[in-house]
Amino acid sequence: MNMIRKLTPLTLAVTLACTSNLMRPAWSSPQFTHSSERYAAQSSFSSSDWVTLNPSVHPTTGRAVSLWSTYYHIYQAQEITNGYPLLDPSGRPLAYLSHRDWCYAALQGTVQVQDRWGRLTTYNFAGRGQTVQMDCSAYFKSLSPATLRKTGRVRFGLARGPHGDGAGGYRLVPYRTIAVDRQRIPLGSVIYIPAARGQQIRLPNGEMILHDGYFFAADVGSAIKGNQIDVFVGSHKRSPFPFITSNPRGTFEAFVVQDRQITEVLTRIHR
């Protein structure tokens, strides 16, 4: 991998004020702006989870890379009485789901469960038990018998982040986290995608903002290889980004940005 050309350090201010839905003029004054402090309890998403980056140095001075993208979301389920238990590694039940929801949670590796009082709890993959707990063949007919057995042995643990945990101790942040092949893009890298800048997105707290184009490598996946990235879109089942085609031929230009202050801000919101 070529060395990344270091950008001129920025002088960046973090403001705690609420912002409007409009992006400031590109590359005008260096600053970070927090999103609105409106909070929706059901989303567990606070103003500190999104910081709009607006540096004075154009990020396309970083190393250019050609990428293609897929996207992934967190699976959501309703807890039920007399359901099938999500077990932790010691065999202790954490929540009870329908047969279908249990299987999809095990396959996805992360699930957000709503209890009867409307409270949300997120669980992550935490290993596998010795024996198969659930037969999921009715839902995943294309999976091999070996993969189905692994799926039926999944154990869960409480996630640190409200939207689940990534790799390397990072938590997932909707529309900011990307899963990468760490041989191509190391964890903790900042990627700028010009095609994402200015795209309108709805944050988990309901606020509409314009994306600034910056993403953070905080997750990996066994199927993510080479120049593919996988964009985390939270609980939404569709991607708002036109550059995501889920097709290896649908490549786009991106830039690896090495700037200490930008990296520190994105690292902080992923911890």
The helix/strand class is: mainly beta
Q: Count the E strands.
A: 17
Strand/helix succession: EEEEEEEHEEHEEEEEEEEH
What count of domains describes the coordinates? 2
CATH architecture identity of the largest domain: Beta Barrel
Radius of gyration, in angstroms, nearest whole number: 20 Å
The major β-sheet equals: 6 strands, mixed, barrel
Top-tier CATH class of the largest domain: Mainly Beta
- Please report the distance between the alpha carbons of the first and last residues: 27 Å
Query: pLDDT below 50 for ≥5 consecutive residues: which ranges?
Result: 1-43
Total helices: the number is 3
Q: Fraction of residues in helices?
A: 10-25%
The percent range for strand residues is 25-35%
Order of strands side by side in the largest beta sheet?
Answer: 4-16-11-15-12-17
InterPro entries: 3D_dom (IPR010611), RlpA-like_sf (IPR036908)
GO molecular function, one term: hydrolase activity, hydrolyzing O-glycosyl compounds
Pfam family, one: 3D
GO cellular component, one term: outer membrane
Kindly describe this structure.
The chain has 2 domains: 56-73 and 168-270, Barwin-like endoglucanases (Beta Barrel), CATH 2.40.40; 75-158, Beta Barrel (Ribosomal Protein L25, Chain P), CATH 2.40.240. The strands form 5 sheets. Strands 4-16-11-15-12-17 form a 6-stranded mixed beta barrel. The protein has a 4-stranded mixed sheet with strand order 5-8-9-10. It has a 3-stranded mixed sheet with strand order 1-2-3, with helices on one face. The two termini are 27 Å apart. The model is unreliable at 1-43 (pLDDT under 50). It has helices at residues 99-108, 145-152, 260-269, and strands at 14-15, 31-34, 51-54, 63-72, 75-78, 84-87, 93-97, 110-114, 120-128, 154-158, 177-180, 190-192, 200-202, 208-210, 214-220, 228-232, 252-257. The protein is mostly beta strands. It contains 3 helices and 17 strands. A hairpin with a 5-residue loop joins strand 8 (110-114) and strand 9 (120-128). Helix content is 10%, strand content 31%. The radius of gyration is 20 Å and the shape is globular.
